[in-house]
């Protein structure tokens, strides 16, 4: 599956590609409006990550082109503008999601994953990972045909982990994902540890393997146990 | 005290003092003149008596009429001529009356006499009283007229001053309305208005340039932060990191996080001041608060904080996004500055929202409370913009924030309908 990153800030574009490459994604970059337009008209992408302010034009115009050509590419807008109006405009123009800078790559990963899932599974909303089976509609977890009760936050956390599997996820990124940007919670991330601990316990009790590995106090990694 | 009240007071006191002194002087001078007049009459009487004695070589008969008494007393010694004022009792109605008296010696053949001529002062006193009465009334009228005139005149003269004062009082550099000063033909006021106009214009320009600067600056900072953060996100993916590298990375990560949060808050403050949240809706605050309480539930459980709520329906007009941020900030605050096993209480009514918490921190400085970057304790990890944000959001929504500290407990109250003024 191919992803197009339309972002004029080369360093940021490179980071995004580095993070999303591997797994099932192939990453292409466009640094200006013209290149992006060309690539969009020539190829099909599973997802387009789109900056709004670009040299040579606006990302919103690209979005209109995409919709006009009736392409079904998923689009995530990444922008430094975070006013509600900007978001509404972007989503109205046909974007699937809107992420404000600065964001965590894990957050972007989770959102790209969600969009591709939505496009690819078309109504079938079951997500599988090893012994885990997530019903995205009901927001339910089943392990080996046994339902496991998760709190809302635990469910979101698990989905976030699966979307960024095999990656180290920073505690800060988890905090922002679960509670949003403007929750001014002091540097104390102990409460995340509590959530992880609870989730881990429930998975183990349900008969799943231990997928969550802590990485030196920096964060956590969700993967199949070696 | 108002300027012209003060002026009037001083003026009145000074006038009264001057009039008092003048009245006393007036009284004594009139009295002197009148007494002098009577003394002259007495001298005329003396001359007449002396003339009579010369001509007839005998004393005239003693006689007294209502206001004049003359009698003679034989004496052996020569008499000293003198004027004096005496009080005599009237034989008929036994009334005490003041008399002016002239005593002089007069001699007929071989016999020395003392002549006493007295004239009643009653008439003089009556005249004096009338004069005084008239002058007191005149003085009172003058004072009254002066006071009223001052009041009316000064009020009218100072009118432009008060109008300018009001205009300046309502001046806010953040609001885009030019100040209207009343035109006046008084030079001093014109000069003042011109100065005020120049100052307010300059402060507005400075404010605007500062605002544009801070907004642009924090906007520009977003991109580098985004890059640094993304690079750190990539770096931590490296399996080969040692523990000490990880720790270093984690501090860098936290610092970027802090910077990003700080920048976000500054940008938000600039936007609130920029009035970018004008879109106001009716918000059911109770529902919104209940959603937030659910979000925070786990945080509270984690810190073992007991939460006490008393929520009634409250509907307010404000921007949805700001409402979100306001509640987040208030609730985060109550958690962040709390201790494990502490308490939080939340009360919502149609008039106010109160959020209080236990804390080990001392009373906050009420003067500096809402200032940007105010940190009560040196080791504080927050960026010092939270309270400033709360205050700005409240102001932008027409609310008022109050802070209370009692029994080691902090409480913030948002009043939705603060009494006007």
From TrEMBL, chain A:
TM ranges: none
Chain ranges of the Response regulatory domain: 2-116
GO cellular component: cytosol; protein-DNA complex
Single annotated GO MF: phosphorelay response regulator activity
Superkingdom as given in the UniProt entry: Bacteria
Organism: Flavisolibacter ginsenosidimutans
Name of the protein in its database record: Response regulator transcription factor
Phosphoprotein listed as a keyword: yes
From TrEMBL, chain B:
EC number: 2.7.13.3
Pfam family, one: HATPase_c
This protein's UniProt keywords: Kinase, Membrane, Phosphoprotein, Transferase, Transmembrane, Transmembrane helix
Presence of the UniProt keyword Disulfide bond in the record: no
Reactions catalysed, as given in the entry: ATP + protein L-histidine = ADP + protein N-phospho-L-histidine
PROSITE patterns: HIS_KIN
UniProt GO cellular component terms: plasma membrane
Domain Histidine kinase stretches: 216-420
The UniProt record lists the keyword Magnesium: no
Lineage: Bacteria, Pseudomonadati, Bacteroidota, Chitinophagia, Chitinophagales
SMART domains hit by this protein: HATPase_c, HisKA
Transmembrane segments: 12-30, 130-149
GO MF, any single term: phosphorelay sensor kinase activity
Name the UniProt record assigns to this protein: histidine kinase
InterPro entries hit by this protein: HATPase_C_sf, HATPase_dom, His_kinase_dom, HisK_dim/P_dom, HisK_dim/P_sf, TCS_sensor_his_kinase
């Amino acid at each position: 599956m191919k992803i197009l990153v339309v972002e004029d800030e080369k360093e940021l574009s490179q980071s995004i590609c580095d993070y999303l490459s591997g797994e099932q994604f192939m990453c292409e970059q466009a640094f200006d409006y013209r290149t992006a337009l060309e690539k969009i008209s020539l190829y099909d992408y599973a997802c387009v990550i789109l900056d709004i302010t670009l040299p040579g034009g606006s990302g919103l115009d690209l979005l209109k082109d995409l919709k006009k050509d009736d392409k079904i590419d998923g689009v995530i807008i990444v922008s430094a503008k975070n006013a509600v109006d900007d978001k509404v405009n972007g989503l109205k123009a046909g974007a699937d999601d809107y992420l404000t800078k600065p964001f965590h790559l894990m957050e972007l990963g989770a959102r790209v994953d969600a969009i591709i899932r939505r496009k690819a599974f078309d109504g079938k909303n079951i997500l599988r990972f090893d012994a885990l089976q997530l019903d995205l509609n009901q927001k339910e977890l089943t392990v080996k045909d046994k339902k496991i009760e998760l709190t809302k936050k635990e469910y979101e956390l698990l989905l976030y982990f699966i979307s960024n599997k095999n990656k180290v996820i920073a505690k800060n990124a988890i905090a922002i994902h679960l509670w949003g940007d403007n929750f001014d919670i002091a540097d104390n991330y102990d409460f995340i540890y509590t959530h992880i601990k609870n989730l881990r316990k429930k998975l183990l009790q349900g008969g799943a393997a231990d997928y969550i590995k802590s990485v030196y106090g920096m964060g956590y990694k969700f993967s199949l146990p070696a | 005290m108002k300027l012209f009240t003060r002026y009037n007071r001083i003026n009145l006191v000074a006038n009264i003092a001057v009039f008092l002194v003048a009245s006393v002087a007036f009284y004594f001078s009139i009295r002197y003149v009148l007494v002098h007049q009577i003394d002259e009459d007495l001298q005329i009487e003396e001359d007449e008596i002396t003339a009579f004695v010369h001509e007839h070589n005998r004393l005239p008969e003693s006689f007294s009429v209502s206001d004049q008494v003359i009698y003679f007393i034989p004496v052996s010694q020569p008499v000293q001529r003198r004027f004096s004022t005496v009080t005599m009792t009237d034989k008929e109605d036994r009334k005490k009356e003041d008399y002016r008296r002239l005593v002089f010696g007069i001699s007929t053949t071989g016999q020395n006499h003392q002549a006493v001529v007295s004239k009643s002062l009653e008439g003089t006193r009556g005249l004096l009283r009338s004069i005084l009465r008239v002058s007191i009334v005149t003085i009172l009228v003058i004072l009254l007229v002066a006071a009223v005139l001052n009041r009316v005149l000064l009020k009218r003269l100072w009118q432009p001053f008060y109008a300018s004062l009001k205009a300046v009082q309502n001046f806010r550099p953040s609001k885009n309305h030019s100040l209207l000063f009343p035109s006046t033909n008084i030079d001093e006021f014109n000069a003042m208005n011109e100065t005020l106009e120049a100052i307010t214009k300059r402060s507005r320009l400075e404010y605007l340039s500062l605002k544009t600067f801070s907004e642009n600056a924090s906007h520009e900072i977003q991109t580098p932060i985004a890059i640094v953060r993304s690079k750190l996100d990539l770096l931590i993916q490296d399996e080969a990191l040692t523990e000490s590298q990880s720790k270093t990375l984690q501090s860098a990560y936290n610092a970027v996080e802090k910077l990003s949060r700080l920048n976000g808050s500054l940008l938000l403050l600039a936007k609130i001041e920029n009035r970018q949240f004008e879109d106001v809706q009716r918000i059911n605050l109770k529902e919104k608060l209940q959603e937030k309480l659910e979000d925070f539930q786990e945080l509270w459980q984690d810190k073992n904080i007991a939460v006490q709520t008393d929520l009634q329906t409250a509907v307010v007009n404000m921007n949805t996004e700001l409402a979100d941020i306001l509640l987040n900030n208030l609730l985060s605050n109550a958690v962040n500055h709390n201790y494990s096993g502490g308490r939080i209480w939340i009360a919502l009514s149609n008039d106010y929202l109160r959020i209080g918490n236990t804390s080990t921190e001392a009373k906050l400085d009420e003067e500096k409370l809402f200032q940007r970057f105010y940190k009560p304790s040196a080791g504080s990890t927050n960026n010092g913009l939270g309270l400033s944000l709360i205050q700005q959001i409240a102001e932008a929504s027409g609310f008022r924030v109050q802070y209370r500290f009692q029994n080691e407990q902090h409480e913030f109250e948002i009043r939705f309908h603060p009494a006007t003024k």
